[in-house]
Design brief:
Layout: E1 2-5, E2 8-11, E3 20-24, E4 33-37, E5 42-49, E6 59-62, E7 65-66, E8 76-83, E9 86-93, E10 102-109, E11 112-121, E12 126-131, E13 137-142
Parallel strand pairs: 4-11
Antiparallel strand pairs: 1-2, 3-5, 5-9, 6-7, 6-10, 8-9, 10-11, 12-13
InterPro entries: Ig-like_dom, Ig-like_dom_sf, Ig-like_fold, Ig_sub, Zig-8
Domain Ig-like: 19-117
Protein name: Ig-like domain-containing protein
Length: 149
């Protein structure tokens, strides 16, 4: 921004943080993949920061289908708490099956969104690499999905 006052030229810089949208785990870390057992409930959390929510709405999508107002499937719940500079939104999808697998997106605009891939498993074993904080790792197979976050 450029301002002039009685022959003086002054510059001022306006800093504003870019909007931030993240789907996070229970500890607030960004998620990329999440695993659920068939017949369980998908529970996803989205945090939105650095945006005035008076002009934005948090939308949840499965693929390209909006979930916020979906009354055909049933068992879908969206709760959004608005704050001065953002929002916390949660999505629950009850009694999931394989057709509920796929990409889930939390969006405030076509350019500001976060996506997580949800995998609904029917008792299959999954192979995963566990990485410890010290950098060591190991490969394991499990049919317990709650250890993946």
């Amino acid at each position: 921004m450029l301002r002039t006052f009685a022959g003086r030229l002054t510059w001022s810089r306006i800093l504003s943080a870019a909007p931030e949208v993240m789907i996070v785990d229970e500890e607030g870390r960004p998620l990329h993949d999440k695993y659920y057992e068939a017949e369980s409930t998908i529970q996803l959390s989205c945090i939105v920061r650095h945006v005035a929510m008076t002009s934005s709405v948090v939308s949840w999508l499965h693929g390209d289908r909006m979930l916020n107002y979906d009354t055909t499937r049933g068992g879908i719940s969206v709760k959004t708490d608005l704050m001065e500079e953002g929002a916390n939104s949660s999505l629950s999808v009850a009694r999931v099956n394989k057709t509920d697998s796929g990409n889930y997106t939390c969006s405030i605009s076509p350019t500001e969104f976060a996506t997580v891939t949800v995998h609904v498993l029917n008792g299959e074993f999954i192979r995963m690499r566990i990485v410890h904080r010290d950098g060591s790792s190991f490969i394991t197979c499990s049919n317990r999905y709650n250890i993946i976050g």
